[in-house]
Amino acid sequence: MLDNVFRERANLNLAIVEGIKEASDPWGIACLRYEIRTMNMPPEIQRAMKLQVEAERKKRAYILESEGTRQAEMNKAEGEKQSRILRSEAAAQEGINKAFSQSKAAESEKLSLILQSEAEMQSRINMAKAQAQAAESEKIQRILASEAAKQAEL
């Protein structure tokens, strides 16, 4: 209703300007603007207009409040979402770190086994060489003893 009053006042202003232009044109007078400044309305219409203005204010306040509540809920949800994402990323990184340390431990164990096997193999090689040298030394001593016995017989 209030919007209609203001719209009709603007339309009435334009109609009056057009009417004055038509009437004053033959005399070279131009009316550029006409404005209705005050409107006296019956008290019941004034009350209705005040009620409408108050209702519009309340409506805007309610809309602003609900938009604020909505934005707060969205911010809270976004914060919770980010929190879940960060916790998930932390858990994933923890899993990666654990797998990496297990991989390094397995690699260390593998290297330890390789070194142990190589040491054992080297020990066996050394033992075999020592046994071969002992056998060779024993063989040489038998040959020398045999030759010494032959020399003693002569």
Automatic annotation (TrEMBL):
One of its GO terms (biological process) is mitochondrion organization. One of its GO terms (cellular component) is membrane. It comes from the Eukaryota. Residues 2-80 form the Band domain. Coiled coil: none annotated. Pfam families: Band_7. This is Band 7 domain-containing protein.
